[in-house]
Design brief:
Length: 203
């Protein structure tokens, strides 16, 4: 079945919308009075997780209905969210949902590193239609992506273990998405240098 294209704004809504819903659900969660700070934060995480899991699955379903295509990274993300969200709710332990970004970034970094060790860029396989670059460019971009994702995984661990849940939710909602956007923007010179048809010389 041919892939359909949707507007960039709608694509952004499908990608960022579930994260915004998670943040709003956490902040607006109905919490009983008289709880300690840790108890209140746990109840907020449990409520927002109950909302977040079906929201991200709904976004994935909407993406399929609109484009007849599911990005592999989005599918992996949805699976990890569902598994770790389910563990969070079943065990009433917010450790699982807090570790979810760490697991995702570590998993993606590991997959990309495995490809590099085989002399391949799996990013090219995923994104070649969006960014036409030479093989040398894709290899450099992939190396940078591995380092970046490992850094994000470490940062997530530091934040959720070192600060309270409220701070981690803000970090998860605003800092991580912004870091991803800024990282890609910082790679524009690389995209231009190794664009198909260019010499690809380092400068």
């Amino acid at each position: 079945m041919a892939r359909r294209h949707i507007s960039p704004i709608l694509k952004l809504v499908l990608e960022v919308g579930p994260i915004a819903v998670f943040f709003l659900a956490y902040r607006l969660a109905p919490v009983p009075a008289g709880l300690s700070v840790s108890e209140r934060q746990l109840e907020q995480i449990l409520f927002s997780t109950k909302v977040f899991v079906p929201t991200i699955l709904a976004a994935l379903a909407a993406s399929w209905l609109l484009t007849r295509h599911l990005p592999r990274m989005a599918v992996i993300t949805a699976v990890v969210v569902t598994v770790f969200g389910g563990l969070t709710l079943a065990l009433r332990d917010d450790t699982f949902v807090k570790m979810k970004p760490t697991i995702l970034y570590g998993l993606f970094a590991g997959i990309l590193l495995f490809g590099l060790l085989r002399g391949q860029s799996y990013l090219k396989y995923l994104m070649d239609e969006l960014i036409p670059m030479s093989d040398a460019g894709w290899m450099k971009f992939t190396v940078r992506f591995v380092v970046f994702y490992v850094a994000l995984a470490v940062a997530n661990e530091v934040v959720w273990r070192g600060w309270g849940t409220d701070t981690w939710v803000d970090f998860r909602t605003f800092v991580l998405p912004a870091a991803n956007v800024l990282f890609v923007l910082a790679q524009v010179p690389l995209f231009q240098r190794y664009a198909v048809g260019n010499a690809g010389e380092d400068g």
